[in-house]
Amino acid sequence: MKAVVIHAAKDLRIEEREPDVLGASQVDVAIEAGGICGSDLHYYNHGGFGAIRLCEPMILGHEIAGTIKALGAGVSGFAIGDRVAVSPSRPCNHCDYCLKGMQNHCLNMRFYGSAMPMPHIQGAFRQRLIAEAWQCHKVRDSVSINEAAFAEPFAVTLHAVNRAGSLLGKRVLVTGCGPIGALTIIAARAHGAQEIVATDVMDAVLVKAREIGADRTINVADHPEELAAYSANKGSFDVMFEASGNERALRAGLETLRPRAILMQLGLGGDISIPQNMIVSKEIDMRGSFRFHEEFGLAVDLINRGAVNVKPLLTGIFKLDEAVAAFETAGDRSRSMKVQLAFD
How many CB atoms within 10 Å of residue 36? Predict the structure, then answer.
């Protein structure tokens, strides 16, 4: 089979790899669609992120969907030919955190395409993938395989919404309208947010933000005063989802939060300076959001039922042998929102 393998920054190769052997309780999935994630781009552009660096060649990818081609012994509930979205979250289910229902913090997590441990956890950008049956979630005939591949990033935002608590009737600010920010808008709307304002520094992504449900968008590079207006009377928003990882976005957003509001941090960046006096004086509740686990099934269910529409966020599909061009396009925010690879 062919696989997309990163060797070092800007050294992405299509290589032949031997497929894994199908075992009991497993399924053999022909991968058909794979979305390029921000972490994939970090490996491609920089050879890693933060202290995490590539130390050996690694197959990239974890936003995947495909068709089951074979069933291992003991597998029930699936049939050959079923189309599935595959969760990349593979906790051990034995460590202290797993036993407490915090599988996203598993001490022995095997998340596809991760250079955190050594040897690295190989990813899912490959033509055939052997997965545990419990990782797979059926996709309805009415849903395209490309929509199904959105389940993973959508699950990330559903976990953030879960961490934020009830959004019913709440006023929500989303800062940063890349794929995660945009999917956060969709997740917040599905969970009852009354008003959603989204900010970014690029008009192209703000157009998409309005298309998928934001009530108002603000280009804070051109019109910072429009966001600043929400800071009157100690603030306007109940919840802020910070998806840019940018210190200026964080500081500007904090100004607009009401006392006892919630700041939910999704965007990953470098270490930043936080205005602690404002956190204290407004009694802001700061929370982090990392990966997901049980939310993956909810993501697939919402997509299956047509309760959400992720199709406007798909801006490009590239063939496997065009992987380098796909990664270059995915890294250009002026041209793309979500870029996927086709493996068939």
Answer: 27
Among residues 160, 266, 265, 177, the alpha carbon closest in space to that of 218 is found at: 177
Tally the C-alpha atoms within 13 A of residue 105's C-alpha that lie toward its C-beta. Answer: 9
Along the 344 residues of the chain, how does pLDDT read in single tens digits? 999 999 999 999 999 999 999 999 999 999 999 999 999 999 999 999 888 899 999 999 999 999 999 999 999 999 999 999 999 999 999 999 999 999 999 999 999 999 999 999 999 999 999 999 999 999 999 999 999 999 999 999 999 999 999 999 999 999 999 999 999 999 999 999 999 999 999 999 999 999 999 999 999 999 999 999 999 999 999 999 999 989 999 999 999 999 999 999 997 777 788 899 999 999 999 999 999 999 999 999 999 999 999 999 999 999 999 999 999 999 998 889 999 999 98
- 64 and 43 together in one domain: yes
Number of neighbours of residue 13 by Cβ within 10 angstroms? 12
- The residue among 245, 173, 171, 257 whose CA lies nearest residue 209 is 173
Residues spanned by the domain of 275: 155-288
- What global pTM score does this model have? 0.96
Q: How many domains, the chain?
A: 2
Same-domain pairing of 8 and 131: yes
CATH of the domain at 210: 3.40.50.720
d(CA 113, CA 128) in angstroms, rounded, equals 15
CATH number at residue 316: 3.90.180.10
At which residue do the structure tokens 């099934």 appear?
Answer: 297
Copy the structure tokens of residue 186. Answer: 């969709």
